[in-house]
Each structure stands twice: as C-alpha cells, then as structure tokens.
Amino acid sequence: MQIRFTKMQGAGNDFVVLDETQGRLGLNTAQYRFLADRHFGVGADQILTVRPSPGDGIDFEYVIHNADGGEVEQCGNGARCFARFVHDRGLSGKDTIRVQTKSGVIAPRLTGDGRVTVDMGRPEFNPAQVPFDTTGLTSVQQGLGQKWPLALEEYAPGASVLIAVASMGNPHAVQLVDNVDTAPVAQTGPLIERHARFPQRVNAGYLQIVDRSHVRLRVFERGAGETLACGTGACAAVASGIRLGLLDPEVQVDTRGGRLTIAWSGADTDSVFMTGPATTVFEGQIDIPDTLV
To answer: What was the pLDDT predicted at 293?
Structure first.
C-alpha cells in the first residue's frame, strides 16, 4: 500500500503526518511502527493523523501513535504541527481551531510570528487521575504541591527519586535535577516509564531550574524513548514547578531541540498555554508492506 505523508518537527520532536480527511488508511500497529522506524520507514517520534470533525463545534480529530505503534492521548508539540499542517494544506482558514484528541478538546492558534500557541487544558495533579498508585507512600509537601518517593531498586539497591506527578491528558513524572546534561536519563528513564506504580506507563521528566522564568528539560517519553522535546512534558514540568512554588507564571523551557514558552496562572481552573515552532521538513510517498502484523 502506497501512502502520502508529510514530515514535520516542533523543537526537534519529529512527526509523520497523515491526512485521513478523505478516508481512513486503515493502518495497524505494526504499520505505524514501520512508518516511525528510522532505518526502514520514514522515521519519527510519533505518527499524527488528521481526521474530519467528529461532531458539532469541533474542526478536526487528532489521533496520535507513538513510535512503538501504540495510540496515546496527547502530544503537545504534535498539536502545533497539526495546526500548521491543516492551515498550510488549506484544510482550514481559521487561525484557531478546535481539535478532538483522545483525552479531550484542545485549541491550537497560529500566531503572527509564525509560532503556534496551544491551549493544552487544565493540569491534573490528583495521583489517582494521573494515574499513579500511592499505596504505602508518604508525600513531601512543598508549596501547593506534593513530591512522592519512587523506588528504583533496578537502578541501584535502595535507590529512589522524588517525583511530582501530573497529567496533561497523559501521565508525567517530574523530578528536579541539578544539571540535565548529567542526569541519568538513559538509565532511569526506562525504569520510571514502566514502573509498576504507573499502570498506564509514564513520561519521565528531568527538570533543571535555571531561575524562576527559565528551565532546562529532558523527557524520556512513554513508547518513544528520549526525544529532543516533549510539549506535554514541558507543560507538566512547568505546572509542577509553579505548584511547588519554584517558578513564575510564564517560563522559557529549553529542550535539546529548541525553546518552548509555557504559561499557567497556577489556578486549578485555568489552562496551560504552550507556544513554540512548527515546521514542515519534507513531503513524500512510501510503500508500506500489507503483510506487517
């Protein structure tokens, strides 16, 4: 089966974008995994699919598959690329669109400087809603937030880290580090991602605070490994830092792929807003084996 695709990136987080507004391609998990493969396919952190509106008041449906082929709830950098794609393709003339994701409705908006701002919705800090199993754990209170001890016996006997848990429609575990360059992301990221206390697995964030309006961040993403940037990870990290009393309402987030701007008032009823780049890299056509399972 031959399909057309667009390769895009947002702060180095890269995507294959598929247009299903005129009909479903009917890809299976193995075929999504093939597309994401950097040796045999196109190569991407996630596969983004554009589908028609599923209902009144919604412009498009946005479906996300990780590099391992699994469908996930949300992808912030992908949302910016999604908005850029539908605008550049002439699928919508609106500057702001309402998009249905697996976890709810988001509203990306094209800005005058070429970047895209996304209303990412309200952060969720209730461990049960992340979800995160706190059975037998005692939290450390800081500011309005909590940090939880997470045992990492597979890393070293007696090892543990303190994490803040949050959901931006997908689960995140954020830990503070002195220097992201020396943080053991490759070693502990996979252990945190698949930790038994996270029944849906988790994105592991490593947050270095430079000052109250500037942070550095690395994220080991669920189903993708470490990526150059993670939009929901940046939102979760900044929102957690604000709850802990460590950050101001607007923060510049430096990832390995570029800079994102995250803004949140700190009020439980208010949304987190993320602003950053979204760029088309190239377009192409690829033959996907029909026999992949």
So the answer is: 77
Active site residues: 75, 230
How many domains does the chain contain in total?
2
pLDDT digit string, tens, across residues 233-286: 999 999 999 999 999 999 999 999 999 999 999 999 999 999 999 999 999 999
Residue range(s) defining the domain that contains residue 53: 2-119+278-287
Helix axes 231-243, 76-88, angle to 10 degrees: 130
- Asked if residue 192 is part of any domain, the answer here is yes
Does residue 138 share a domain with residue 245? yes
155 and 136 both lie in a single domain = yes
Domain-located, residue 12: yes
Its pTM stands at 0.91
| Tokens at 224, concatenated | 């993708």
Give the Cα separation of 234 and 219 in Å (integer).
9
